[in-house]
Amino acid sequence: MIPRAAWPYLIGPALVMGAALGLRWYGAAQYQAGADAKQSEIEKRQVAIERAWQEERDRADAKHRGAILAREAAEKTVAAQRGRIDGLLRQLARRRAETPSAGSGLDAAGPDWIGIIGSCVGRYEQLGKDASRWADQVNGLQGYIRGLGIHP
Length: 152
Prior knowledge:
Elements: H1 7-98, H2 111-148
Helix pairs in contact: 1-2
């Protein structure tokens, strides 16, 4: 048995030791709560970044699909106009065959004018195809640059 005179010497250190353990436990709990909050914040940011990446991919895909549709529409328009001009050229050739003196007046459509129009249409077609190819390349490069994280 412990003598009565020794109790104050035992209770004091026991209380100090209990207070120290309580403070340590409280500090550890606070540290763990801070670590959990930080981990939760990191996970939220990661989800936001992934969502933004997916939205950017979806936007770039939609823009690319729109460019393809616009190019196809332009090609159809050019093809339709080319068919119309070819028809007019055939009609003109038939008229020339029927009347050999056509194109002698100042306002008449002579062979030089028809050739110029035909070459302009051919050049227009080529430029339309080149422009759509260049637009696709530019869109692809811009998407690549954005994917790298470089913003102009």
